[in-house]
Amino acid sequence: MRAVIQRVSRASVAVEGTVISSIKSGLLILLGIEEADDSTDIEWLTQKITSLRILDDAEGRMNLSLRDTGGRALVVSQFTLHASTRKGNRPSFIRAAPPAHSKPLYDQFCTALSAHLGQQVERGRFGATMDVTLVNNGPVTIIIDSRKRE
Q1: Domain, as residue range, for 106
Q2: How many Å separate Cα 143 from the centre of its chain?
Q3: DSSP conformational letter for 92
Q4: For the domain that residue 95 is a member of, what is the CATH number?
Q5: Does 66 fall in a domain?
Q6: N or C: which end of the chain has fewer CB within 10 A?
Q7: Is a pLDDT exceeding 80 seen at residue 39?
Q8: How many domains is the chain partitioned into structurally?
Q9: Helices 99-117 + 39-51 axis angle, to 10
Q10: What amino acid positions are annotated as catalytic residues?
Q11: Which is it for the CA torsion 93, 96, 98, 102, positive or negative?
């Protein structure tokens, strides 16, 4: 499971011109799921994300987590995070899990993240073409891969 986490002042997702979800201060999480991913990846990644100290404290230092601040999260599925550009110029998405495998894991990830935060997590629409709008605060962008556990 691979996540691109962006600290945002605001973020939203629109499908066919209609905003379906939005947050103010918090994290936009782009989530890519591969065939080998399972519930252990979900538990590790949701724990890591909710504990990441990338939000500012009173002195403006990145010292607080999403859990500490009560900030919001918006999760968008993005199979292209598993693109391979090793051969040629056209990306291969062979490592990305098919929808039958990735949709349930995406839903489980959002549910687990909600449980860790104690609040609802906003979502994109799985499998849809989405317009994601964000104001990256900082900018702060972190990439985490559950396979590497870094």
Answers
A1: 2-145
A2: 10
A3: B
A4: 3.50.80.10
A5: yes
A6: C
A7: yes
A8: 1
A9: 40
A10: 78-80
A11: negative
